[in-house]
Every structure is written in structure tokens, then in C-alpha cells.
Amino acid sequence: MAFFGLFGRRRKNREVIERLYTAIVEQSRATVFYETIGIPDTLEGRFELLTLHMTLVTRRLKAMASPGPDISQDLVDLTFAQFEAALREMGVGDISIPKRMKVMASAYLGRASAYDEALRLGDRGLLSDSLGRNLYGTAPKAPEAVEKMTDYVIHSASALAKATLEDFFAANPPFFAEIE
């Protein structure tokens, strides 16, 4: 009997994680980032924006009481499963997948650590430098655009800090909506 209750709970949690993942992906693909802020609309640019938004959500979930940290880990696991599926769709062979996943994991974790440290320290300059370097890579970037992204990230982190578990269960993470 307990087994069936556990199965139902896991399935419900999976549905929550998938809806939350979808909401994060939708936010990271908002056209304002590409058209107004000038982040390259490339595979790399999309990876960077997804990593940024995922970091904002998971850092909040990790700071919450249980089951927040578990949801955070499940969300990261789903993200990497999606990365692997995308590589396979692009035709990357089975032999190359582990190496590519290792590179992606390293990039993801490095960026997540840099963003988390800058936000934790309240260091706007460090955050701005990290965003400019990661979001634009070698593409040209306007200093005003990087500042707008820095504002967006700071305001989103602040909004997310007030979010409840119910906000996440409803797949409604409160990102800062205004970028001009």
C-alpha cells in the first residue's frame, strides 16, 4: 500500500518539476533578451540564459525548507537530461555524449557558482562582469545592455527570495518582468 502512495507522489513531483522546467525555459527564451538586450540567439546564448534562470530558481529552492532542496536537485537532473537529449537530436554520437556532458556540466556549475557568489556578496560589479562574459561570449555587447541584465538578475533574485514553495509548485517563479 505504501508503495503505491510513493509512486503517486513521485509522479506528482515529476509533473511539478516538468512544469517548473518549462516555465524556466520559456522565461529564458523571452525575445527581449535577444532583441533588446542583444544576447546572441544561438545555441550558446540559449544555454547561457537557461543556465542563468535555472541558477536563480535553484538557489532559492536550495535555501528553502524541505522539499525545496530536493526539488532543486530534481530540476537540475531534468535539465541535464534535456541537455543530453538535445545533443542526441543534434546527432552527437553515443561515444561523444559523456565528454560533451562533462563540458556542459562544468560550464553550468562554474556559471552557477559565479552568479551565486556575486548575488550572495551583493557585488554588482562581479555580477555584471560574470553576466557580460558568459551571456555574450565573444559577441559585441553594449555596456547598457549588460547593466540592464544585471538589474534584471538582481531584481529577479529579490523577487524569488520572497517566493513560496506554492509558487514553485504552481510553476510560477516570479522573475522580474521588466527590461527596457
Record the SSE blueprint.
Elements: H1 2-28, H2 31-35, H3 43-63, H4 68-89, H5 97-121, H6 124-136, H7 143-161, H8 165-169
Plain-language structure description:
With 180 residues, the chain is mainly alpha-helical. The chain has one domain (2-169). Helices cover 76% and strands 0% of the residues. It is built from eight helices and no strands. The chain has helices at residues 2-28, 31-35, 43-63, 68-89, 97-121, 124-136, 143-161, 165-169. It is globular, with a radius of gyration of 17 Å. Mean pLDDT is 91; it is low at 1-9.
Percentage of residues in helical conformation: over 70%
Largest beta-sheet characterization: none
The N- and C-terminal alpha carbons lie at a distance of 54 Å
Morphology call = globular
List keywords for this structure.
180 residues, mainly alpha, 0% strand, disordered N terminus
Describe the structure in brief.
The protein has one domain (2-169).
